[in-house]
Amino acid sequence: MKTKNVMIVGVGGQGSLLASKLLGHLLLSQGYDVKVSEVHGMSQRGGSVVTYVRYGDKVFSPVIDEGEADYIVSFEALEAARWLPNLKKDGIIVTNTQQIDPMPVITGAASYPEDIIEKLKETGARVDALDCLKLAEEAGSSKAVNIVLLGRLSHYFELPEEAWMESMAAIVPSRFLEMNKKAFQLGKDA
What we know:
By secondary structure, the chain is of the alpha/beta class. The protein has 8 helices and 6 strands; from the N terminus they run βαβββαβααβαααα. Helix 2 links the parallel strand 4 (69-74) and strand 5 (87-96). It starts with a strand and ends with a helix.
């Protein structure tokens, strides 16, 4: 199988590292060679967090270059726009519609761009956008946005749902497992 590339992008504290760990576990369990790489930046101060997940028969590097991402999974709308150049021409963006103000917006030095989702679509990108925060809260915690996004991403993978659940059970702390299963299902069914 040709190597596939998934970028998981967001803001520090949103759970993108857990999402990449779960996705990596899932793909390994299905027999793929997997490489995962994390770039934290100023993540502890609300800055960008980027994780690369590459999988296939044989993967040599964990890094995804410009124009190579098959999927961009974005926890926040502006992060989807920021990483758009990394998407392949036929790639897919799975994004949360939530907006989190970056520091220049918070300080008043800039304003948050309007209609980001529409602007992404206007570039020709395939955009699958949903209010993951609302679904996560429905599942029981606003912190489950990451799992809602993975549920949505599962539409684009030909992997059995049981495998997703087994990886979730292996990665997510048991006290949060049922809530996360509900979050996954809500994202999948949205």
